[in-house]
Amino acid sequence: MKTNCEFVWLFGTSAVGKNTFINKLKNNEALRNRFALNNVVVCQESLKLVGDKCPTNDTRNILIEVISKMPKDNKSVLIKGQSVDLYDNKLHEKLKESYPSGIHKIILLWVEPSELVRRWQKRAIENPGWRDWGDGSNALERCTNAQNEQLKTIRALENSFEVIYINSTDEEYRSLDVNLV
Fold first, then answer.
1. Which residues pair with 79 in a beta bridge?
2. Cα-flanking dihedrals φ and ψ of residue 14, to 5°?
3. 128: buried, middle or exposed (CB in 10 Å: 19+, 13-18, 0-12)?
4. Residue 23, CA distances (Å) to 39, 69, 96 in order
5. Which are the contacts of 52, defined by CB distance < 8 A and separation ≥ 6?
6. Which run of H or E residues covers position 112?
7. Mean pLDDT across the stretch 23-31?
8. DSSP helix, strand, coil percent of the chain (3-state; round to 5)
9. CA 11 to chain centre
């Protein structure tokens, strides 16, 4: 399908701050301008189909159909990505195939590993049943490995997608030099 739209996938490990970043983008023009995101519309279903609301990997495949029905002219369609989208379903690639004339971007949020451990632990307390990846003596290693795996996967996509790396350790949202991670 032909479109003058951009599609922006937001990836990052659990507790990296994807929802917080989306909410900040919606209400902060300076932040949108910093990362060249104009007229942002959020794919609400990408926010809802997570965790236990996404019983199978295939459940999120519906996002392609949902996005096809969204207003797109001169918009930045923001999609909250999940690991299943990146590794299993490859929804970012399917969307690009559906809209080859669109601009396709990926934003990867990254957090200092010690802060990510703290967030994982906090989330486990606030949400009983959420697996506590921050528990145990190797929590820092698990956090580091999870982020490094996503970083490696996203870096391999740099020839096909415009990629923006952002440090979301605090709410300053600074560009991240991935060579220093």
1. 9
2. -55, 140
3. exposed
4. 14, 22, 25
5. none
6. none
7. 90
8. 45, 15, 35
9. 2
Distance (Å, rounded) from C-alpha 88 to C-alpha 74?
30
Mean pLDDT taken over the chain: 86
- On whether the CB atoms of residues 93 and 157 are closer than 8 A, the answer is no
Local structure of 55: helix, strand or coil: coil
Q: pLDDT value at position 84?
A: 85
This prediction has a pTM of: 0.90
Residue 47 has pLDDT above 60, yes or no: yes
**Tokens describing residue 143:** 């956090």
Confidence of residue 51 (pLDDT cuts 50, 70, 90): low
> Is the pLDDT assigned to residue 158 strictly greater than 60?
yes
Q: Give the closest residue to 11 by CA, choosing from 26, 21, 25.
A: 21
CA distance 125 to 139: 16
* CA 57 and chain centroid, separation: 16
